[in-house]
Design brief:
Helix content: 40-55%
CATH class: Alpha Beta
CATH topology: Rossmann fold
Largest sheet: 9 strands, mixed
Distance between the termini: 29 Å
CATH superfamily: Alpha/Beta hydrolase fold, catalytic domain
Number of domains: 1
Order of helices and strands: EHHHEEEHEHEHEHHHHHHEHEHH
Length: about 375
């Protein structure tokens, strides 16, 4: 069943949020930069904006102008946006984001996708346990890679493109592997890991360098991933109880992973930051969102050494993303038709460089006759 959806508004919940943002016990800080994590001066400015200037009622009204829906798939409620292309014969596109994101990341992208040639019918689902989708009730209860093709069937799409960044790129990969007859093409902004197949060519120097860069990134930047994939529940209590803690945890990642030259507000306006924070806060889904990392690390079956995505695939590498995989690593898993390192952009290209992202999606759609 699919029904229209509107973002709810709970004045008591917003009053509670305001009180929490007025009764803060700040941690001390011995640096005035981001070397140890979220810089206190910026966090104070963000919290002040969220508390004193941000108008969730007005933002909710604006966001509710978007085509929101909820579907029940295998007994689970999924929230999604559904945009229709403005020209005839649009290409169905399943577009998936990662963490710590929301559909807000796509507000700059979707207008490029519904226009142009080819145009797209764009479906943007919200992950189970994120935002306005249902929260799983037990570990690994819902596998999005199984649910999303069923959602596309409910919407009348027999075949479709898949695209994603971060977690969304992994989902695009798994959907293409699990439903190869349905996936017209894939577009990914990261390369999913898999073991080397027996008898496979040894890693090239570019791959060796990539593995070293990735290991260095894990050492310097991967602390969040370590705790979210091992003890997410411990972290969830604090982030669900403290809006300042939530803001610090999320904004540090948005700054570190964006092409912002250290100035997060140059890419992410305060209002946009507050939109995403308020969605996580009012739905109380930060805890369920980070549990996805535990499920992915501990419970979800890994890709096999012989896994291969046969759908034509475009690989987009953004220079300020986490670690850029070389083409030869991508070709071990995907039928790579294009591999592009863009001149700018980071982990969130839908927001940071929507025109470049849209054109690359359109390029692979043209290649398959879209």
């Amino acid at each position: 069943m699919i029904t229209p959806f509107q973002i709810p508004y709970d004045p008591e919940q917003l009053e509670d949020l305001g009180q929490r943002l007025r009764r803060i016990r700040w941690a001390d800080a011995v640096t005035d930069d981001w070397a140890m994590g979220t810089e206190r001066g910026f966090l104070e400015r963000l919290v002040a904006f969220w508390r004193d200037e941000y108008d969730w009622a007005a933002r909710r009204e604006a966001l509710n102008e978007l085509p929101h829906f909820r579907a029940t798939v295998d007994g689970r409620g999924l929230h999604f946006l559904h945009f229709h292309g403005e020209k005839s014969g649009p290409v169905p596109l399943l577009l998936m984001n990662g963490w710590p994101s929301s559909f807000v990341e796509y507000l700059r992208l979707w207008p490029f996708l519904v226009r142009g040639a080819p145009a797209f019918d764009v479906v943007i689902p919200t992950m189970p346990g994120f935002g306005y989708s249902d929260r799983p009730r037990r570990p690994y209860e819902a596998e999005p890679a199984d649910l999303y093709p069923k959602l596309m069937s409910m919407l009348g799409y027999r075949q479709f493109m898949v695209a994603g960044t971060d977690i969304g790129a992994g989902l695009a990969t798994r959907i293409a592997l699990g439903s190869p007859e349905r996936v017209l093409a894939a577009h990914v902004s990261s390369v999913a890991p898999k073991p080397f197949a027996p008898g496979a060519a040894p890693p090239t120097q570019a791959e060796i360098d990539y593995d070293a860069r990735l290991a260095a990134w894990v050492r310097e930047e991967g602390g969040y991933q370590a705790i979210q994939s091992t003890r997410p529940q411990t972290l969830a209590y604090g982030l669900s109880d403290s809006p300042v803690g939530l803001a610090a945890w999320i904004v540090e990642k948005l700054r570190a992973w964006s092409d912002c030259d250290g100035d997060v507000a140059s890419v992410w306006p305060m209002e946009t930051l507050a939109d995403t924070l308020t969605i996580y806060w009012t739905t109380n889904t930060i805890g369920s969102s980070i549990r996805y990392y535990y499920e992915a690390a501990k419970l979800r079956p890994p890709l096999s050494a012989d896994a291969f995505v046969s759908a034509p695939t475009a690989v987009a590498m953004w220079p300020h993303d986490l670690a850029l995989a070389p083409r030869e690593r991508a070709e071990r898993l995907y039928d790579v038709r294009s591999y592009t390192v863009f001149p700018r952009g980071g982990h969130f290209p839908a927001w940071e460089t929507p025109e470049l992202y849209a054109e690359d999606l359109r390029r692979i759609a043209r290649a398959i006759g879209g």
